[in-house]
């Protein structure tokens, strides 16, 4: 009886009461479903304001278009960068369960501050009703700006914790030792992106309409209510969650292996410091026993060091500089895995730099155009509804039709590999930037021909032209984000899965930061050759945005070639995802 209970336990997992998780009671798709619903509410709260924030900063806080764009990209970048802190804490000290609840409370506090400021006229600059784009309005003062940025960055801290803990919490509900469990986990990541889109759909339609027609205090209020509602929804799944037990700092292990490798390589001329009799092997980290007479076929950790990144093999020695630097074969091989996924991670940053334009210049472009569809006036910040709806349609189609078909054709468990998905997203981002450049050329041509170059009046051209770049970038996001999350979670060692999954958000963060750096660099360089930089001033019609988009297209193409170099050389750690 007791032996049966032991076999029924999830090794390394506990329930919400910190007792051993049981296979027949905890985990599975039902437990992960609560995570998907929570993500709808959480992303609604985050994107409700992020999607329209650039207009709030320019119209109500009186920042210039380029300053507003940089503030938004820095805010979004910080929020996603802090996901790495959330992932680290989930792996090392806290459970994903506790970290989500703490992070949701922090985001709630930040949104509450922003709601109070938006509701109180004395906490905002005086209203500027000028119809001319040449007249400067009074900017927000230091005290009011301090309140604005306190609220924004509390939201960023909360979002970071949630993004770093919620996806791995959902993915950990599946048994990765079975093909069925791995397939369900892959489906979970597809539907996680679907849930992101559901929250985004409500955010860029209903909440943006409220912000534009009823006031920003109501928009912030809806976001505050959404994040508050996500907490009891998350708690409803508590009885069936299984949560990974924190295994200590994975960063410490990585630094220990790297330092030991450096020290031992420096002393490699000493014969007594030879590697512990373990020959390097080109075999996978996981091997099957039974190749030499043993009939069992159970996967066990290999006791041989692989030939990849051979420099690190010196970390395993009989005599080390310090007992604290004593490393095992398993630790060295795990660090190798992390180092090998970093080039793939770096190649996704440029795509996310392209995505950053969706919440900045693209919205400002649409704001200068005719935003009416028949008699309905569409807020510019609702433009993302096009890629969102497209993602909501294509995600189930991809999961239920494309992947099963690919599995039959390739006769592999994955059907379409993670790296193929990411590569598809990179190609779509190149097309999106080319389309964006052509559309901007058309928009400016209309402004010149209509004599509205210096006017704040809407141009006689429909904003639906901007929707084209949204469709391509939305598709790129679906392929790349789900592919990245599944790739990092699957390939990473169990002790650092949350941290590895958070790299998906760090890539997004660095894309936003790179966008800010790129804008500043372009302005600095172009100001040397021209009196006015490409992306400076309060009038978007005077910007050379089309040249900036062409530059992004070229950089994205070069990045894709860089990606192909690493993707073609990457070997999957697990046999289930190997070609």
TrEMBL record:
Any Gene Ontology biological process: transmembrane transport
Alphabetized InterPro entries for the sequence: MFS_trans_sf, POT_fam
Record-level Gene Ontology MF annotations: transmembrane transporter activity
Keywords: Membrane, Transmembrane, Transmembrane helix
Topology term for the membrane: Multi-pass membrane protein
Pfam families: PTR2
Transmembrane parts of this sequence: 27-48, 68-90, 97-116, 145-162, 189-210, 216-236, 337-361, 381-401, 422-439, 459-482, 503-528, 548-566
Family the entry assigns: Belongs to the major facilitator superfamily. Proton-dependent oligopeptide transporter (POT/PTR) (TC 2.A.17) family.
Name of the protein this chain belongs to: Protein NRT1/ PTR FAMILY 4.6 isoform X2
